[in-house]
Write a structure and sequence with these properties.
By secondary structure, this protein is an alpha+beta fold. Helix content is 25%, strand content 25%. InterPro entries: Endo/exonu/phosph_ase_sf.
């Protein structure tokens, strides 16, 4: 398999705006009539490359007015509690924290899982996440990042979802055992009376 160097990609692209590990899409969320910037990250696990990436993203941040959603594999944790049975760079963690702060992004809790990457010898890290502009948390108050079940990858998928989606009315449940109570039928008739006549069937 042939590898393409950064220089070759930049020649094909025409300038330096192409980066191997980032995809930025600016567009419109049609149903909500919102402009948005989606940034997909696949960061290097090399500290100097991460540092360069955070710097580039911080520069690019000021060029967009639309609110950001940044998600992907950052290949770094924010604190020691996001690691188990493995070590990481404290300097890398600090630089990542600075990037989040400088870009005014919010990292909110992961629901359902504590870690997003699972390695050999019980190694675990939270490397994957969504970072959002405050705008999104104000606009969609029940937004969650949910850790899903892992399949073939050593990373779990993460779903960014609005927990307050209206799935319609809840189904009505009736427990037949209630009919054994003497006052059940009277209570039902009394409560349903405002809704008109009804016929009973004992099937």
């Amino acid at each position: 398999m042939e590898m393409i160097s950064k220089e070759e990609v930049r020649k094909l692209w025409g300038d330096d705006s192409c980066e191997f590990r980032v995809l930025i899409i600016e567009g419109k969320w049609v149903n909500e009539d919102l402009e948005a910037v989606l940034v997909n990250i696949y960061a290097s696990n090399i500290a100097t490359a991460q540092s360069n990436l955070w710097g580039k993203l911080s520069e690019l941040r000021s060029k967009f007015t639309s609110p950001w959603i940044v998600g992907g594999d950052f290949n770094v944790v924010r604190c020691r509690s996001e690691r188990s049975c493995c070590w990481g760079s404290e300097k890398g963690t600090k630089e990542f924290e600075n990037f989040i702060f400088d870009c005014n992004l919010i990292d909110f809790p992961l629901v359902g899982k504590k870690f997003t990457w699972y390695g050999q010898e019980n190694k675990k890290n939270r490397l994957d996440r969504f970072l959002l502009d405050e705008f999104w948390l104000l606009k969609m108050k029940d937004l969650q990042q949910i850790g899903l079940k892992r399949s073939v990858s050593d990373h779990i998928p993460i779903l960014l979802a609005d927990a307050e989606v209206d799935w319609g009315p809840r189904p009505f449940k009736f427990i037949n055992g209630w009919l054994k109570k003497k006052d059940c039928m009277g209570l039902i008739k009394k409560e349903w009376k405002p809704y008109g006549q009804f016929e009973w069937s004992n099937c």
